[in-house]
């Protein structure tokens, strides 16, 4: 189904279609159904529902009814099986939940080996968010040609040792591209990383012209509406399909409603020791007979990861 194809009439007795939200912009939603792509708005009664989270985001499965040529109305949102959310600024300086994408299968965390310099604490922050959201994370190391495979592996080995898959890639040599492409097949993936890590080049290597296609979709569907907030699922054309979430501002992710008592669980190598601390509710910062700190001293938890934990506990820094 080509992006931009519209619907003339649904083939359903109930008059309702189930579809996936591919794009959200300024109160308009583009929903891909079996019949094609519909430009939709929310039904009034749905907009009036007071919820603590976003009503509709990309990746949501929704029920729609046809209201005009190529146009629909979203009647209901089906329950989400997963979501990736961040902390966003709300009114009067308060914070609120900003759901980035719903029903996501995995998060690809793209970090360069050099240019820009690898920042472990930022990676740790992303991993905490993935663990808290119970989303599988795949670490993608880019620009390995700048440092060599041995150095690249030394940078990311601590994460492999605690169970995170790491895909080592080079746009120059093509190393790792086929492996990464295989990991995207049939899944909804969020690909994120700070500016300069080579994310765009990586996506174009996986599917040539992907970013150009993103621009074409944006231009065709925007229809002159002005906005600074656009989120989109980009279909993958390779055999087996899949989607890549392209969202604005995803590089700036703050922790949303993560209780301090749950932070240690989000460091997966801490988990075997959490029940062995002498004090219930141990913060693993200063209490005596702390099993986590003892594991750090024995070398079972790296000092760098423990330092990331301490920094997040003390200051909630941005990485």
From TrEMBL:
Keyword DNA damage: no
Binding site for GTP: 142-145, 193-201
Primary residence: cytoplasm
InterPro entries on file: G_CP_dom, NA-bd_OB-fold, P-loop_NTPase, Ribosome_biogen_GTPase_RsgA, RsgA_GTPase_dom, RsgA_N
Subcellular location: Cytoplasm
HAMAP family listed in its UniProt record: GTPase_RsgA
Family to which this protein belongs: Belongs to the TRAFAC class YlqF/YawG GTPase family. RsgA subfamily.
Subunit structure, interactors included: Monomer. Associates with 30S ribosomal subunit, binds 16S rRNA.
Protein name stated in the entry: Small ribosomal subunit biogenesis GTPase RsgA
Organism: Chloroflexus aggregans (strain MD-66 / DSM 9485)
Gene: rsgA
């Amino acid at each position: 189904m080509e992006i931009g194809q519209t619907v003339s009439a649904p083939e359903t007795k109930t008059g309702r279609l189930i579809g996936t939200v591919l794009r959200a912009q300024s109160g308009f939603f583009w929903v891909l159904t079996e019949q094609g792509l519909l430009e939709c708005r929310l039904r009034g009664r749905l907009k009036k529902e007071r919820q603590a989270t976003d009503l509709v985001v990309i990746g949501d499965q929704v029920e729609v009814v046809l209201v005009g040529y190529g146009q629909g109305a979203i009647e209901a949102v089906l329950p989400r099986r997963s979501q990736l959310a961040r902390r966003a600024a709300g009114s009067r300086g308060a914070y609120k939940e900003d759901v980035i994408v719903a029903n996501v299968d995995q998060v690809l965390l793209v970090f360069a080996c050099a240019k820009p310099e690898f920042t472990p604490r930022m990676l740790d922050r992303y991993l905490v968010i993935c663990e808290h959201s119970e989303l599988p994370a795949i670490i993608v190391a880019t620009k390995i040609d700048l440092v060599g495979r041995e150095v690249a592996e030394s940078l990311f080995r601590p994460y492999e040792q605690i169970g995170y898959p790491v895909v080592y890639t080079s746009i120059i040599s093509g190393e790792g591209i086929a492996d990464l492409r295989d990991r995207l097949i049939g899944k909804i993936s969020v690909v994120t990383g700070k500016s300069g890590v080579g994310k765009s080049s990586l996506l174009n290597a996986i599917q040539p012209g992907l970013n150009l296609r993103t621009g074409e979709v944006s231009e065709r569907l925007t229809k002159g509406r002005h906005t600074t907030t656009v989120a989109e699922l980009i279909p993958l054309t390779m055999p087996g399909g899949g989607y890549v979430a392209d969202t604005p501002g995803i590089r700036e992710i703050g922790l949303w409603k993560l209780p301090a008592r749950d932070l240690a669980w989000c460091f997966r190598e801490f988990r075997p020791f959490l029940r062995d601390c002498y004090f219930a509710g141990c913060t693993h910062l200063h209490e005596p007979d702390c099993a986590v700190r003892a594991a750090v001293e024995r070398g079972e938890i790296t000092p760098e990861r423990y330092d990331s934990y301490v920094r997040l506990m003390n200051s909630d820094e941005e990485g």
